[in-house]
Design brief:
Elements lengths: L32 H18 L3 H11 L3 H5 L5 H4 L7 H22 L1 H22 L8 H17 L1 H28 L9 H18 L3 E5 L7 E5 L3 H24 L1
Length: about 260
């Protein structure tokens, strides 16, 4: 037997749709301690630099800045040490503020280890791009900051379904701010402070590529053991993103080796 349900009468009132409920789910974030350590480190180095005499400043920069010829002769550490040097107050204020704002967000969402990978490998990508495309000496954390900037954009793009309209609006704001910063560098005519556009673009590309493979892939799942019955789970396992990081670092080493011998 089959139960027959007669169609509703044309005069009957339709049943109201189920009410829409917005549910808040706690994200698995961390306290951004590494961001504060990096910020403190570059400030201390800047204060030390400012305490030097003019001759000592020149010698300090000559020993630690990104200078192409010593790098070709084996001083590869300059690609990293240059990320912690700043020339003047405006330079460190701009980079320090950007690190404070963006770094805290990225470290909170990505975790300490993945944030460190993006900051250092992304910054190294910027320094390497500067080495390949620019002969001028270069210093500053801009490459690493552009890397975490790119990482945050990739995060909100991948999780636009999770953060809803607020996340999509934040992503649009990030893209606009990135375009403005790149435009400032590309069209700057300042002669007393040259902007390393190659380093900025290299850091941005590095952060985007790294975040695409190692960023958390958060998904909401049902869990009766959790209050509210929902939890956020990262579906990008550590072995996968760790392998991606190693492969990326190997790629940077290969590019450096080719650039030196070319």
């Amino acid at each position: 037997m089959y139960r027959y349900q007669p169609p509703p009468s044309p005069d009957s009132e339709p049943e109201p749709p189920a009410p829409f409920r917005r549910i808040a789910v706690r994200m698995p974030v961390v306290v951004p301690r590494l961001t504060y350590l990096l910020l403190g480190g570059i400030v201390l180095i800047y204060l030390y630099y400012m305490a030097l005499s003019p001759l000592e400043k020149n010698a300090f920069l000559s020993d630690w800045a990104k200078v192409n010829e010593p790098i070709r002769n084996g001083e590869y550490y300059r690609l990293v040490s240059s990320m912690f040097l700043h020339l003047n107050l405006m330079h460190i204020l701009f980079n320090g503020y950007a690190l404070y704002i963006i770094g805290r967000d990225v470290e909170s969402l990505f975790g300490h280890v993945r944030f460190a990978i993006i900051y250092f490998l992304g910054g190294l990508s910027g320094a390497l791009a500067s080495f390949v495309f620019t002969d001028a000496p270069s210093v500053g954390a801009s490459g690493a900051i552009f890397a975490i900037f790119g990482a945050e954009m990739i995060y909100f793009y991948k999780h636009r379904h999770l953060h809803g309209d607020a996340g999509r609006q934040h992503l649009r704001q990030l893209i606009l701010l990135m375009v403005l910063n790149l435009g400032l560098g590309l069209f700057s005519t300042a002669t007393n402070f040259r902007i390393d556009n190659a380093g900025h673009i290299g850091g941005l590309v590095g952060g985007v590529v790294l975040a695409w493979f190692i960023a958390p892939e958060y998904n909401v799942q049902r869990d009766p053991a959790v209050e509210g019955g929902l939890r956020v789970v990262d579906q990008n396992p550590m072995p996968r993103w760790a392998l991606s990081s190693v492969l990326y670092a190997a790629g940077l080493a290969a590019v450096l080796a080719y650039a030196i011998t070319a």
